[in-house]
Design brief:
This protein has 693 residues and is an alpha+beta fold. It is built from 13 helices and 41 strands. Helix 3 packs across helix 13 and helix 7 packs across helix 8. One of its GO terms (biological process) is proteolysis. This is Oligopeptidase B. Pfam families: Peptidase_S9 (PF00326), Peptidase_S9_N (PF02897).
């Protein structure tokens, strides 16, 4: 058995706003991920993890087989019609990655566009991710963005579907957020990042020309804004947006006009948000908070030369503070809206009439505690819309929604072998936060589970992202062992609308953490939880670190995945990804008041001598969002401060992956199984003690 590694201590004293902050492990950042000393330390941590897990590998293997037993290994995803073809992804038994396929609507054999398994072998790659794939309007070409390192830096490849060969040499160094064709299928729109991996430029690439001759369409110099682009639903206009958390600026470009340049449609105005803008016919549609519509409303503008004027905006769906609008999709004869009411996702349909729009009709489902969203829709003239439906106990269903009758037709229910929904029950409870706010918590368990039970509490609570109740096979091994799986819908998400997000960011960020701790305390007090294991990833890893500092005694084990735990060091370094983009989320620590807020909760900086629970910390060496050094520093400092009786701390670094972990579906399942085996040993008291290591 190896002993727990100890990182070298190389004291650095940070001084900001007259506040001094010691940092013994700053070198893990400054020396870089290619440094031999850094790699040696991360490798030693991986060896320590292997030593801890050695007696648990049998349990891990059993859990992996349970997870795999619920996977329909050979399966086709639902087809999505684009032009003359239906596109879909296929998985085959024993193969780790998807195969991209298409079928001619007029009849004929299926075509294989891209087999990621073969590509991985042919090019000797460790991981492969495709973020976007788009056929040309005539279907002759098929473009896709490929990442092979997990660093989220992409190559653009264009397949000639007639020959099966690449139509030209790949473009390199692209962002993963933009890929669309012009109307003639002769040019592609894409984005690139600046040195901090902030998408800052939109380009037009004419096929056959070298990348050095590509046209720059939009450049955003403001480091707090990032660019994106997408076609309108009718394909006639490219919408280009420069956006921050608190403002958007919209430009448009005619995709049918060779050499067309973007024209400004709506200028940025801080505090005025227009997260969605589209149009067809004689008007533009926008979701906006303009005029104090905090939960957003839907307005229309007449199309005209020049920029739009808010004086011309007309309400299509007037503001309702009880209804939070989040998205839309426009069809020739209908408008499909997405949003939230009463804490749950909702859809509404409005008919398009010669004079405007009819009333909003809500799409009804048999139960409220479900998650529904707009799916992939690429036929502007369609009379039905693809939507996606799920709940904690109901595997994902792809439905076609008739936009006139609002009836739904099942396209595909995700097959889950060995799963019987009748054995499980989902519930929602409410807990009271320290400031009196009521916070919803979703619960999943087997009907025959006796309470109190071992409980895993999951949380996120940032960026306005909601942790909606959705089915996942990954929970079944724990739930089938008599655990309760709980999701705390803490402030910082948008489960209860925009106010819920605003109450968990910037100066109010501490609410996210105290909500989560209160949820854990309440689950113990009300007889649900016997012991608590906490889990969260990325910004949810920040939540784990903060909750650990607030109540180290509350948790038997904590799983911070790719965790954002060194808040001050990261947000003070504007040369690394995401920092400047996220001043509106966390604050700008160059300002003294905002520094103080962040210093009060930054997990790394608030570690103290304590009896810590078991910790399983994970990261990816190539992660561009939360760098490896954050979790590495956190693990090292926990070991320094852990008092006698503390649990086992392990740090797992996936050397060939980034923020999302391994790209292989089998490796993904194995990573879950490893964490669950650790959790089971933690609650059973069978993890080796630090002295034994």
């Amino acid at each position: 058995m190896t002993s727990a590694p100890r990182a070298a201590r190389k004291g650095v004293l940070h001084d900001m706003h007259g506040v001094q902050r010691t940092d013994d492990y700053h070198w893990l950042k400054t020396q870089g991920r290619a440094d031999p000393e850094v790699l040696a330390y991360l490798s030693a941590e991986n060896a320590h993890l292997d030593a801890v897990m050695a007696p648990l590998r049998g349990t891990q293997a059993a859990i992996y087989q349970e997870l795999l037993s619920h996977v329909q290994e050979q399966d086709d995803q639902p087809e999505v019609v684009r032009g003359a073809y239906a596109y879909f992804q296929r998985t085959l038994e024993g193969q780790a990655h998807a195969i991209f396929m298409r079928r001619p609507l007029a009849g004929g054999p299926e075509e294989t566009l891209l087999d990621l398994n073969a590509l991985k072998v042919r090019e000797g790659l460790e991981n492969v991710w495709v973020y976007r794939a788009v056929p040309s309007p005539d279907g002759r070409l098929w473009a896709y963005l490929l990442d092979t390192t997990g660093q989220e830096v992409f190559g653009l490849r264009v397949l000639d579907t007639a020959t099966g060969e690449l139509a030209e040499a790949p473009l390199t160094g692209l962002s993963g957020w933009v890929l669309d064709w012009n109307a003639g299928g002769t040019a592609l729109y894409y984005a690139t990042d600046d040195a901090t991996q902030r998408p800052d430029t939109i380009w037009r690439h004419t096929l056959g020309q070298p990348q050095t001759q590509d046209e720059r369409l939009l450049h955003e110099p403001d480091p707090t804004f990032r660019v994106a682009a997408a076609l309108t639903e009718d394909g006639g206009t490219l919408r280009l947006v420069s956006q921050s958390n608190m403002a958007q600026e919209w430009w448009v470009l005619d995709t049918a006009q060779d050499g067309a340049q973007p024209t400004l449609l709506l200028a940025r105005e801080r505090g005025t948000e227009i997260p969605v803008l589209t149009g067809a016919g004689d008007h533009w549609l926008a979701l906006t908070n303009h005029g104090g519509a905090d939960e957003f409303k839907l307005v229309r503008f007449p199309k005209r030369a020049g920029t739009l004027d808010w004086a011309d905006a007309q309400d299509v769906l007037p503001y309702d503070p009880a209804r939070h609008l989040t998205g839309l999709h426009l069809f020739r004869h209908h408008l499909l809206l997405a949003g939230r009411e009463g804490g749950f996702t909702r859809l509404w349909v409005l008919a398009r009439t010669p004079g405007g729009y009819g009333p909003a009709r809500r799409v009804e489902f048999p139960e409220d505690s479900v998650t529904v969203r707009i799916g992939a829709n690429h036929v502007f003239d369609a009379g039905s819309a693809r939507i996606v439906f799920t709940s904690l106990t109901r595997p994902v269903e792809h439905l076609d929604l008739d936009l006139d009758s609002l009836n739904t037709t099942l396209v595909k229910a995700t097959p889950v072998p060995g799963y019987d929904a009748s054995l499980y029950v989902s519930e929602q409870t409410w807990i009271t936060a320290p400031d009196g706010e009521r916070v919803p918590v979703s619960l999943l368990r087997r009907r025959d589970t006796a309470l109190p039970a071992l409980t895993l509490l999951y949380g996120y609570g940032s960026y306005g992202f909601s942790m909606d109740p959705a089915f996942s096979i990954s929970r079944l091994p724990l739930v089938d062992r008599g655990w309760v799986y709980a999701i705390a819908h803490v402030r910082g998400g948008s489960e209860l609308g925009r106010r819920w997000y605003d109450a968990g960011r910037l100066a109010h960020k501490m609410n996210t953490f105290t909500d989560f701790v209160a949820a854990g305390e309440a689950l113990k007090a009300d007889g649900t939880a016997r012991e608590l294991v906490a889990m969260g990833r990325s910004a949810g890893g920040l939540l784990m670190g903060a909750a650990l500092n607030l109540r180290p005694d509350l948790w038997t084990a904590v799983f911070p995945g790719v965790p954002f735990v060194d808040v001050l060091s990261t947000m003070l370094d504007d040369s690394i990804p995401l920092t400047t983009n996220e001043y509106d989320e966390w604050g700008n620590p160059n300002h003294e008041e905002q520094y103080a807020v962040m210093a009060a909760y930054s997990p790394y900086d608030n570690l103290k001598a304590a009896r810590y629970p078991h910790l399983f910390i994970s990261t990816g060496l190539n992660d561009p969002r939360v760098a490896y050094w954050e979790p590495a520093k956190f693990a090292a400092r926990v070991r320094d401060l852990a008092q006698p009786g503390s649990g086992v701390t392990v740090l797992k670094t996936i050397m060939g992956a980034g923020h999302g972990g391994s790209s292989s579906r089998y490796e993904y399942l194995n990573e879950i199984a490893e964490e669950y085996a650790y959790a089971l040993a933690a609650v059973d008291g069978t993890l080796p003690t630090p002295d034994a290591l």
